[in-house]
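Table 4 source record.
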Amino acid sequence: YNPWLSNFRVVLRRGELVLVYPFGAEQALTPDGDALRVGDEDSPDRLVFDAIVDGEALRVRWLGGNDYYRFFTR
């Protein structure tokens, strides 16, 4: 649980992955080895998608931070 960042979305926009925060801000995601770098090239933040089931990632690890799990609502 992270009270400062309880959720986010990763979307594909014009062929690029984008991290969308719940308050509306967005940052580009750039491949960096096995991870995705959040923001510009100096950013230390990295995301790693794992727990792949049927070709879909069910967890994202924010390196140095928390794990986030995918879930569905109607």
